[in-house]
Amino acid sequence: MASMSRFIQFNNEQIDARQMISYENLTRALANSRELQLTERQLMELNPQEQIASMSVFWRHRDEEKIHLGRLSDIYLLSEGFWRHFSLSEWRIFLEDLEDFRFPKLLSQLVLLGEEFRLMEYVQKSRPGTKKAFSVRREAYLTTYHHQIRVNQQKGLFAESLMNYFYIAIHEGQQKLPSGGIFDEFQPLLYLWQNVFDSRSTRDTATIILRLAPQIEEIIQKELFHNFYALLDQISNELIVDHEHKGVCGVEEGNSGEAKETIEETFRSWHRESEEDSGTHMRFELERGNEGKSLSNEAVEGRDDQQPTEEGAGGDQNAEAKPKKTDSVATKALKRKYTKSGKNFGKEHENVIYEEKKTAVSDDLEQIRILEQWRVDQQPQVKALATELRKRMVQKKTSKRTNLSYGRFNAKQVLDFMTETRPKPFYKKDAPSKPLDAVFGLLIDGSASMIDKMDETKQAVLLFHDVLRELDIIHELVVFYEDAYEASKEAQPNTFEWLHSFEDGKHDAIKEIASMDAHEDNRDGFAIRWMTDRLKKREEKHRFLLMFSDGEPSAFEYAQNGILDSAEAVIEAEKQGITVLHLFLNTEKPSDEQLKLFATIFGKQSIVADQVEQFSDITLRTLRKVLSHVVQGM
Q1: Beta bridge mates, 354
Q2: Which backbone phi and psi does 155 adopt, to 5 degrees?
Q3: Which residue, of 46, 112, 185, 630, has the fewest CB within 10 Å?
């Protein structure tokens, strides 16, 4: 695990993972798409191929209410506006028409500006509750553009000034527009631009801009330098073009000849055709299965001197022979009996492969001797906690088993009939003693950054193990880590090493704990989901997932997105009725940024130890608090 101090201090903003999850759920609900993810980028974007919508960072560094409402306005525009009511087919036609003009970037940005206005008005009418968010949006952008329009004029960025000018005109009115210089030349353009108020479709908006284009080229001499919108930058030409190729005109039409119009329709079509495919795709046309000549232009005619692309043994010699290929990283890993996670553990982990194994028993006699001495030193604490909890359990049972209105008659309380208005001289035999109805799963960070605190971690894990064994509580101890040296885009090998499993009962795992070692990276969200999957199959009433770690998630392509994914994994576990606790193990006092980060991932269930000597004490206090809660619920 990477140290938390690695953050660059002048750019140390961290995403509020739990808030982002709520925003993402809203985005999915409005777009009616469970696959859609939400991120934050410089400008708003939609990327159907990656199933991502992006809010703008424009809303940062404001008061909390404006940040919240501004981000909501982005979400409304993306998921309710552009997602459903922006025509990609009309956009494609417009892009083809731009070939005849000098400033295609400026004209395309003007179309998006007009579409933003049209869709804001549409969403407000269909969902009146969005008006407050859009009001904040207008106010923020108008303030920014009123300042920028003069700056752009002074720098000679007249295309940028025109974008500011048109935005102010439709959102605040012509009376608020500046005058003099270049702005007097912009004023005649408003005659056509004001038709945006009557625009009812992407075609209408595009037509207005194409009619304006010749007049704009007479005024503007340089192309737009800055981007105001990046909305469609991540939508490839393959998705923008009609799925119906020109070469299909003469063949059977099938059930529907209509091209996909909106981003939503295009996304659903692309996702449906591609969701079962992964890795390298064969080059087939994703079209209707019409009979006829192949539409591919990539085929080549065979030649006698063509070199073979693969070598294989003949089928007559060996019916099971297969072409010989060089194994990829993923293939080699799978041969080592890894399991492919697929989509079972979230999108971030689709290429994760993992193995589950029992850790090797340590034969280091010196290390085992040290753990045995720790056990002796900790035994009084273990006994004291066990005794305390058993007394509470007896008190709980006593209060429930005597002074009852029915049951067995207690002859010693016969006078109660004379002295009590409502005598309760009955009792029931005590039920046989039962273990606490609880189960624990402990995840131990096995990343490289744990190497300087491994001894203290072993001592805390041993204490945890001994307390639960003493109380006959089922528990599991698992070290998790990712192989950083073998990780690639095709496969990220992860390992779960059992020190003690649910099935081991009261088995003493001291030798397994002694064998704990530090490895490379840690993929926290994946590990939490893996343990959640095991715990949710248990029948115990109280289920706890504890994590011992010394920082944030750190694995292959799992840095910033690991925070959001881990927070989402915690929320998923809580929905399954599993209590998640985090114990931060470090040799230094955590910073405010670290504490905030832990809060975003684990909520209020994060406990901090800023000195290695405190690991065992904090572990004991955590267990006392948790087990007292279990006893109270008996």
Answers
A1: 339, 494
A2: -85, -5
A3: 185
Residue 333 confidence (pLDDT) above 80: no
Length, in residues, of the chain:
634
Contact of 537 with 527, CB cutoff 8 Å:
no
Under a CB-based contact definition with an 8 Å cutoff, are residues 513 and 460 in contact? no
Q: Which of 513, 392, 517, 535 is nearest to 463 (CA)?
A: 513
The first and second tokens of residue 517, run together, are 């070692």
The two three-digit tokens of residue 441, written as one number: 């799963």
Smallest Cα–Cα separation from 546: which of 520, 527, 572? 527
What integer pLDDT is reported at residue 282 of this predicted model? 38
> Residues of the chain with pLDDT > 90: what percent?
46
Cα–Cα dist 606/345, whole Å: 23
Backbone angles phi, psi at 340, to 5 degrees: -80, 125
Q: What is the DSSP letter of 148?
A: H
- Digit-coded pLDDT (tens) for 117-164: 999 999 999 999 999 999 999 999 999 999 999 999 999 999 999 999
- pLDDT tens-digit map of 303-324: 444 444 444 444 444 444 444 4
Which of these, 170, 165, 161, lies nearest to 194 by C-alpha position? 170
Question: From CA 474, how far away is CA 54, in angstroms rounded?
Answer: 44
CA distance 34 to 49: 14
Residue 524 to residues 344, 440, 580, Cα–Cα distance (Å):
15, 17, 13
Q: Which two tokens stand for residue 454?
A: 């491994």
β-pairing, 542-549 vs 578-585, is parallel
Contact 239, 266 (CB under 8 A): yes
pLDDT, mean over the chain: 81
In this predicted structure, the answer to whether residue 227 has a pLDDT above a threshold of 70 is yes
State the helix-helix crossing angle for 615-632 and 454-470, rounded to 10 degrees.
Answer: 30
More confident residue, 366 or 430: 366
What 288-293 contacts at long range (C-beta under 8 Å, 24+ apart), as own/partner pairs, is 288/248, 288/252, 288/254, 290/248, 290/251, 290/252, 290/254, 291/251, 291/252, 292/251
CA 25 to chain centroid, in Å, comes to: 11
d(CA 199, CA 208): 9
Residue that has been written with the tokens 């994914």 in this structure: 565
Instruction: State the DSSP H helix or E strand holding residue 339, giving kind and residue range, or none if neither.
Output: strand 339-340
- Pair of tokens at residue 605: 């269930």
Tokens at 291, concatenated: 């009979």
The identity of residue 609, as a single letter, is A
Say how many C-beta atoms besides its own lie within 10 A of residue 339's C-beta: 13
Tokens of 372: 């045995």
Rounded to whole angstroms, how far apart are CA atoms 608 and 594?
Answer: 10
CB atoms within 10 A of CB 508: 13
**483: Cβ contacts below 8 Å, ≥ 6 apart:** 492, 493, 494, 495, 519, 520, 521
Angstrom distances, CA of residue 330 to CA of 298, 335, 346, 351, 484? 29, 9, 19, 9, 14
Quickly state the pLDDT bin for 286 (edges 50, 70, 90).
very low
The helix or strand, by DSSP H or E, that contains position 173, with its residue range, turns out to be none
**Are 435 and 415 within 8 A, CB to CB?**
no
Q: Token pair 């001289």 is at which residue?
A: 425
Instruction: Decide the pairing of beta strands 45-47 and 52-56.
Output: antiparallel
